Amino acid sequence: MDPALSRAVPAAACQGAGVPELPEVEALAGFLRERVVGRVVAGVELASITVLKTFDPPVTALAGLEVRAADRHGKWLDLDVDGLHLVWHLSRAGWLRWYDVVPERPARPGKGPIALRVRLDDGSGFDLTEAGTRKRLAVHVVRDPAEIPQVASLGPDPLDPSFDRDALERLLAGSRQQVKGLLRDQHLLAGVGNAYSDEVLHAARLSPFAVAGRLTEGQVDRLDAALHGVLEAAVADARGRPAAELKDAKRAGMRVHGRTGETCGVCGDVVREVSFADRSLQYCPTCQTGGKELADRRMSRLLR
After folding, report:
1. Which of 166, 198, 210, 252 has its CA 20 to 30 A from that of 100?
2. Which pTM was predicted?
3. Which of 149, 134, 33, 34 is nearest to 93 (CA)?
4. Positions of the chain with pLDDT lower than 50, given as ranges
């Protein structure tokens, strides 16, 4: 196996890359399908009790069971372990650290970024890690992923073949929500977050504050093409990459998100930013807002 596949991901690498979204989570699911399906769980070590959101079945019930599948639900990863499901959401600072050979020393509670370690019968395995002090990594052990309210309430997956232009138009119809917020709402559309919504709206040449239900037919056409085009390209780029490379690849592929002050590669204007309490969005005025700069949410009303 390629040595790069066993590289540990430094805690710092999890910071500043944002929440893993559909393309990265799909790539992680593929990464796990190749490496864990058919393997038997030798043991699970819980290093952070706060990440475990369920107690029945216990996490120890996974030991001795075979991994049957690795799937994705929006931004959630799901390992089917002989009928039990280990399901997790990485949130902003979580990540997966793969080992060809798991360290012999057990994961120690309260020491470092490791939250949970899974050992497999061939000596390989992985850690779920979380950097920083805001602990939002969520791990569930359930008999059915639908037992998790956040999974059960997910909207359609934008890459599902059934989610076509008509489905998008129905989603937008009558909505008073800003299109940026609608794209990020996991109850309406599963898997798109802050970064890829910026990228989709840039490709669609739409203001992030345009009202979803007021988009014209042509704007809906552009949004549909951008949503599928951006996500499909990102999935293709992420496919087959080692887990350790996915966050850097995501950052490198962004055209506007995280590129405040840089030059738009489409028109040459400067990428601008609107800041909120816990996040920011990036956009190109020339491409998206008729050359007008979005100063804040109040100013955005002028640009709808």
Report:
1. 252
2. 0.88
3. 134
4. 1-16, 298-304
